[in-house]
Write a structure and sequence with these properties.
Chain A: Residues 27-170 form the SUF system FeS cluster assembly SufBD N-terminal domain. Chain A: Belongs to the iron-sulfur cluster assembly SufBD family. Chain A: This is Fe-S cluster assembly protein SufD. The structure holds 2 protein chains of 2 kinds. Chain A is an alpha/beta fold. Chain A has one domain (7-438). Chain A is built from 9 helices and 20 strands. Chain A has helices at residues 7-14, 29-42, 57-60, 77-83, 125-130, 141-149, 384-392, 397-413, 419-438; strands at residues 91-96, 99-100, 113-117, 154-158, 168-174, 180-182, 185-190, 195-204, 211-221, 226-233, 239-249, 254-261, 267-276, 282-291, 296-305, 311-320, 325-334, 342-351, 357-366, 372-380. In chain A, α2 packs antiparallel against α6 (141-149), α7 packs across α8 (397-413) and α8 (397-413) packs antiparallel against α9 (419-438). The radius of gyration of chain A is 21 Å and the shape is globular. Chain B is α/β, with parallel strands linked by helices. Chain B has one domain. Chain B is built from 12 helices and 24 strands. Chain B has helices at 4-13, 35-44, 49-64, 103-112, 118-122, 141-146, 154-160, 162-168, 179-187, 428-436, 441-457, 462-476, and strands at residues 26-28, 87-89, 125-131, 134-138, 150-153, 192-196, 205-211, 222-227, 232-240, 248-250, 253-258, 263-271, 283-293, 299-306, 311-314, 317-320, 326-335, 340-343, 346-349, 355-365, 369-378, 386-396, 401-410, 416-425. A 10-stranded mixed sheet of chain B has the order 4-3-7-9-12-14-17-20-22-24. A 6-stranded parallel beta barrel of chain B has the order 13-15-18-21-19-16. Chain B has a two-stranded antiparallel sheet with strand order 1-2. In chain B, α2 (35-44) packs antiparallel against α3, α10 (428-436) packs across α11 (441-457) and α11 (441-457) packs antiparallel against α12. Chain B is globular, with a radius of gyration of 22 Å. In chain B, 57% of the residues are buried. Classes of the chains: A alpha/beta, B alpha/beta. Chain A binds chain B through residues 50, 336, 339, 349, 351-381, and chain B through 70, 380, 393, 395-425. β20 (372-380) of chain A pairs antiparallel with β24 of chain B.
């Protein structure tokens, strides 16, 4: 697949369909084929595509990539340790290029919670019911491409009333000896009244080749289920990521999504969408992005209020350094039936260098009258007065700035209810600010 | 007291109050759009060669363009070949005073309450009346002339002040800016031209009333306002149109140029025929309005009250080029029945210390869709730029839509940009409170809506503010429960 033509061109026109696959996942082959024809119809986006106007993905697809990828990798305990969150007591799930490595993992044993390969679950009724069904994935070309050609991924199922004593930490290892286009796919289903905490983190092992990750995670919350979902995005610079996370929430369910994009991949695009199909739900979407160098961080969120009496709350904050590019597009869609909706959205940005820039589109699309909806956006820099005040109290520049960035990020880090994770993030912010000042 | 549903039905079914037509003989251009039409218009208006060439350039650009697809409504099918591009009242002789104006025309304005009569003129309103494209009467000309202010029809300006027109025409909205601006460049009929010389503060509000009358004619106005150094002008534009069953396209262009320390205030009250309650007929208001703050410390302020038109689709913009320049946008947009509004502003911060303020209030009722779409762009040079945006939406009834699509692009870390938007309905507690004080629901709603729009209405010049308040009350009184 490493032809002279750009990979963009290859993906647009030359890529063979899912029929080529000889996997045993025949059960979802019809869905794959459907997705493939959808992808053909949608085509890859250009900057003329409204959803991609601030992210020129073509630029990141110019290099040659291979679709074939290593299934095994030698991951040393040190490397795993580096990718783990210190002091965090959790179950551990390790994936290499989207494939579950049971020997490296510590899975929850017995109980009502199962973690398995998606390919092993091909016949599962839940997979049949939910695979590629989320309405918001239907218009996303990269999600369609993933559904058609994904290699493997995780299937997590929590039974009725299931709960775990500690969170599950999922470590995604991406490795490639040559430039690779990696497509993992995950499905998380929480049955009635189940609760779960998931912490995802990622690590890149080889910085001589580019890993382009096009991942899709589908989340289903049945009645009264609750999911805490943390996504920590910190791999190596030489990687590019497009993530789709699409959740469906039934009545009385709670979904808390946290997205932390740390100085890492040169391209990060997050497509987060939540469809509220049952009443009395709660949705909290929190995001923090710290970007340096020429990093491009693009967060697209979509909260779809389909039914009455749902609450959604969204807060995304960004700190941008150097030549970093930030993009935020958040949409709240309130349908005609969705009366008594409360939907809030806020995006705040701190630009810490001359050349950093931010593009933001906080959008409201509302068809019901008895609702409370608002959105807000700000961009600015450090308040000189605050900095001066701290300096005048004998606090050094680095410490003062670190304090201010921490304060800026506090609204989000404070919502994290795992102390080890909070400490980890505080440390990351400190390193980030220190790096900014030393440059 | 009537219940809320009855009141909503009532408002949704309300007929357009200013729907009537005037029978005046028209001189029409042949139907269709081609180079000959453009030559016909240009010849009719006895234009010089350079003007014709500019029109043809616009037409060339137009031919290459497609209708946009990004708007938040379904684009009606427009057959531009079915329109006639020129209509002028036949009586062409020069008029010295109002007595010479066709009495029927005067009666029309009387019905609309347009202050063209002497009393109003004494109140300080100089009116350049545009009746289907050609100016028929201009008052207060002499007084303005004394100060060196040029306020005349566009055609006159082309004849009498070609240097000024040549220098500024198309510099803010180029002939190829967008498909409707290109169409306007090719076929514009007439419009207003204002030039305020250096150091002059225009002593009165300049106002123009546009009317669309002849069936099957689009109206393609072109307005150019230039405020030279240290000058000030406030310009009013108000519109009402008689009812028609066929859709009428209005694709006007307004260009504003403010030089050093100059200030232009441009106010609009738009109440064109919105179509009947089933969405038949009504005006398509696809207008390109843009101003440039060319000089340092210059200021441009747009204020609009939009209650009419089947579709209102416009983004009055400000390019803040000069250092310390200031741009403002105040808007109230009301939609009901099947009306659509996709409106907002674009502010480009290019110079240092530039400031802008956007206040938008959308009110939607019935089956209408009301969208705020706006762009705030801060360029890399625009150090210390400052923007504040607030857009609020009020929903009346559960079948309408209110949307906010802001675009914010900041390329300078010293800039501060703030945006906030809210959506809500009129609180039952607010209505209850007013009811309890003996104010009936209809009046309570008018009161609340007027209060809601107060921030924008306050920006209007006095003469207009009265009209705008009346318009809001007429449009919305008793619409919520």
């Amino acid at each position: 697949m490493t032809s002279d033509k750009s990979f963009y061109e290859f993906i647009s026109n030359g890529v063979p369909g899912p029929e080529q696959k000889v996997d045993a996942d025949n059960a979802i082959m019809p869905a794959r084929k459907l997705a493939f024809s959808r992808f053909k119809e949608l085509g890859l986006p250009t900057i003329k595509t409204e959803e991609w106007r601030y992210t020129n993905v073509q630029r990141f697809l110019k290099d040659a990539f291979t679709l074939a990828q290593e299934e095994q990798a030698t991951v040393t305990p040190e490397q795993l340790k580096a990718a783990s969150i210190p002091q965090l007591d959790s179950y551990r799930v390790v994936l290499v290029n989207g494939r579950l490595q049971t020997d490296l993992s510590e899975l929850p044993a017995g109980g009502k919670i199962t973690v398995s390969k998606l390919s092993d679950a091909a016949g599962n009724a839940q997979l049949q019911a939910w695979f590629d069904k989320h309405p918001h994935l239907q218009s996303q070309p990269f999600a369609a491409l993933n559904a058609a050609l994904f290699a493997d991924g995780l299937f997590i199922e929590a039974g009725v009333n299931a709960t775990l004593d500690k969170p599950i930490q999922i470590i995604h290892v991406y490795t490639a000896s040559a430039n690779a286009f990696i497509q993992p796919r995950h499905l998380v289903v929480l049955h009635k009244s189940a609760t779960l905490e998931i912490i995802e983190s990622a690590v890149g092992l080889n910085d001589s080749a580019i890993a382009f990750v096009n991942a899709v995670t589908e989340v289903v919350l049945e009645e009264n289920a609750e999911l805490w979902h943390y996504n920590i995005q910190s791999t190596i610079k030489n990687s590019r990521h497009i993530y789709h996370t699409s959740a469906t929430q039934k009545a009385d369910s709670r979904y808390h999504h946290f997205n932390f994009t740390l100085p890492s991949a040169e391209l990060t695009r997050n497509n987060l969408s939540v469809a509220l199909t049952g009443s009395n739900t709660e949705t909290n979407l929190h995001g923090l992005y710290l970007a340096t160098g020429t990093q491009h961080v693009d967060n697209h969120t979509f909260v779809d209020h389909l039914v009455p009496n749902c609450n959604s709350n969204e807060l995304y904050k960004g700190v941008l350094l150097d030549d970093a590019n930030g993009v935020f597009t958040g949409k709240i869609h309130v349908h005609q039936d969705a009366q008594k909706t409360n939907a809030f959205q806020q995006n705040n940005n701190l630009l810490m260098s001359e050349k950093a820039n931010i593009n933001s589109q906080p959008q409201l699309e509302i068809y019901a009258d008895d609702v409370k909806c608002s959105h807000g956006f700000t961009v600015g820099r450090f308040s000189e007065e605050s900095l001066f005040y701290l300096r005048s109290r004998g606090i050094g520049e680095e410490a003062a700035k670190s304090l201010l960035v921490n304060a800026f990020a506090f609204d989000i880090t404070d919502q994290v209810h795992i102390p080890a994770l909070q400490d980890f993030l505080a440390e990351k912010i400190r390193q980030y600010v220190a790096g900014a000042i030393n440059n | 007291m009537r219940n809320s549903n009855e009141i909503i039905d009532d408002i949704a079914n309300r007929e357009y109050e200013f729907g009537f037509t005037t029978d005046i003989e028209m001189e029409m251009a042949p139907v269709g759009l081609n180079e000959d039409t453009i030559r016909f218009i240009s010849a009719k208006k006895e234009e010089p060669e350079w003007m014709l060439e500019w029109r043809l350039k616009g037409f060339q650009a137009f031919k290459k363009m497609q209708f946009p697809k990004w708007q938040h409504f379904e684009m009606p099918e427009l057959d531009l070949q079915k329109l006639s591009y020129y209509a002028a009242p036949k009586k062409k002789k020069q008029l010295g005073s109002l007595d010479e104006v066709d009495p029927e025309l005067l009666a029309t304005f009387e019905k609309l309450g347009i202050p063209i009569n002497e009393q109003k003129a004494l109140a300080g309103v100089a009116v350049d009346v545009v009746f289907d494209s050609v100016s028929v009467a201009t008052t207060f000309k002499a007084k303005l002339q004394e100060l060196g202010i040029i306020f005349c029809s566009f055609g006159e300006a082309v004849r009498n002040h070609p240097d000024l027109v040549k220098k500024y025409l198309g510099t803010v909205v180029p002939h190829s800016d967008n498909i409707f601006a290109a169409l306007n460049a090719a076929v514009f009929s007439d419009g207003s031209f204002v030039y305020i010389p250096k150091g002059v503060r225009c002593p009165m509000e300049l106002s123009t009333y546009f009317r669309i009358n002849a069936e099957n004619t689009g109206q393609f106005e072109r307005t150019l306002i230039i405020a030279d150094d240290n000058s000030y002008v406030s310009y009013l534009e108000g519109c009402t149109a008689p009812r028609r069953d066929e859709n009428q396209l209005h694709a006007a262009v307004v260009e504003l140029v403010a030089m050093d320390h100059a200030e232009i205030k441009y106010s609009t009250v738009q109440n064109w025929y919105p179509g009947d309650k089933d969405g038949n007929g009504g005006i398509y208001n696809f207008v390109t309005k843009r101003g440039i703050c060319k000089g340092k410390s210059s200021k441009i302020s747009w204020t609009q009250v939009e209650t009419g038109s089947a579709i209102t689709w416009k983004y009055p913009s400000v390019i803040l080029q000069g250092d310390d320049a200031e741009g403002e946008f105040y808007s109230v947009a009301v939609t009901r029945n099947k009306q659509i509004a996709d409106t907002g502003t674009k502010i480009y911060h290019l110079g240092r210390n530039t400031r802008s303020r956007i206040i938008s209030k959308g009110i939607s009722a019935g089956l209408s869709d009301n969208t705020y779409r706006g762009l705030v762009q801060v360029g890399p040079r625009a150090a210390n730029a400052r923007n504040f945006t607030q857009c609020d939406s009020l929903l009346i009834g559960d079948r309408c839509g209110a949307h906010t699509f802001p675009y914010i692009e900041s390329r300078n870390s010293t800039a501060t940009v703030e945006h906030e938007a809210t959506t809500s309905k009129i609180g039952e507690d607010q209505i209850f409170y007013l009811n309890q004080r003996g104010i009936e629901t209809e009046k309570a709603v008018a009161l609340i809506v007027n209060g809601y729009a107060q921030e924008v209405l306050n920006q209007l010049p006095m003469e207009f503010a009265v009209e705008a308040r009346k318009l809001l009350s007429i449009t919305l009184e008793g619409s919520v429960g």
